[in-house]
Design a protein that fits this description.
Layout (H helix, E strand, L loop, with lengths): L10 E5 L19 H9 L1 E7 L2 E9 L4 E7 L2 E6 L5 H10 L1 H14 L13 E4 L2 E9 L4 E4 L3 E6 L5 H31 L5 E5 L6 E3 L4 E5 L7 H13 L8 H10 L3 H8 L9
Parallel strand pairs: 3-5, 7-9, 10-12
Antiparallel strand pairs: 1-4, 2-3, 4-5, 6-7, 8-9, 11-12
Helix pairs in contact: 4-5, 5-6
């Protein structure tokens, strides 16, 4: 599940008459190009412009297309434009859409949540199962982590050492994530296939989960920080890919069978997608 499938994005299109063939939405062909050229084509060129009185950084990606496309997401503003369009024309188009761009960027900034504490001391906030808990750190001979309704209590022999506390909590969260998603994958897989898929946790910054053609499922450990229903929806989504490795109508029908009413969860997930880039 790519984060790009669960975000609220706005797009603007500025069309220019030209004899160039229309090839919108196609990715640049990188065959025969060097790694540096391919990377630049994929990642784009960083640029800066003033829009509605605000300094806005954006990535410019040159593509084989007839329009200027604008997209705002977790990574900021991305602009895709034909090679033959000048910077002046591109930034003129950005200026025309300045109000929308600035508003969309502000909305995404507002969605950001810290995945982990900035400081590993008592009182720091940390997300667990969709709730913001307060970290409570105490010295102890034994190392343990325990959540309750309000706090995440951490006992550690070196409670003053933030790096050790961070390592302990990080490992605990990943163990909790595995204990959460592994039984769900097995349970849902039994409904669509006769075999148990290979599973592993990931630390991806661009997706909640994935399923490949070999039937291997990877799920982001940050699922343990989502509300339980959203985490379970992502599991069901990836399990459905064991049958349909696409996003066709048949695929969504399988998701609906596994988790009725998934559309509302899919919309709700948009508000949590910023966790991936935090």
């Amino acid at each position: 599940m790519d984060r790009r499938r669960s975000r609220a994005t706005g797009r603007a299109r500025v069309t220019r008459t030209s004899a160039h063939p229309a090839t919108a939405h196609l990715r640049l062909d990188e065959v025969g190009r060097g790694p540096d050229d391919a990377r630049r084509a994929r990642d784009g060129t960083p640029r800066r412009v003033v829009l509605a009185g605000e300094v806005v950084d954006y990535r410019l990606i040159r593509a084989r297309r007839r329009t200027i496309g604008m997209e705002v997401d977790l990574e900021g503003l991305t602009v895709r434009a034909p090679r033959w369009v000048t910077i002046t024309e591109i930034e003129s188009a950005l200026t025309e859409r300045a109000t929308w761009i600035v508003k969309a960027l502000a909305e995404w900034r507002g969605r950001r949540r810290d995945v982990m504490p900035r400081v590993w001391k008592s009182g720091a906030p940390i997300l667990y199962r969709g709730r913001e808990l307060a970290l409570e750190v105490f010295p102890s001979r034994r190392s343990t982590v325990a959540p309750d309704l309000f706090n995440l209590t951490v006992l550690h022999p070196h409670a003053h050492d933030e790096r050790e506390v961070a390592a302990l909590v990080s490992k605990w969260l990943k163990d909790e994530a595995w204990n959460l998603v592994a039984p769900q994958v097995i349970r849902y897989a039994q409904r669509v296939t006769s075999s148990t898929p290979a599973m592993r946790l990931s630390n991806a910054r661009s997706e909640w989960g994935s399923c490949n053609a070999r039937g291997e499922i990877r799920l982001n450990w940050r699922l343990v920080q989502l509300p339980p229903a959203l985490a379970e929806y992502i599991v069901a989504h990836e399990v459905a890919h064991l049958v349909e490795l696409n996003h066709s109508a048949r695929f969504w029908a399988i998701v609906e069978t596994l988790m009725p009413g998934h559309a509302a969860l899919r919309r709700e997930l948009e508000d949590w997608t910023a966790l991936l880039a935090a």
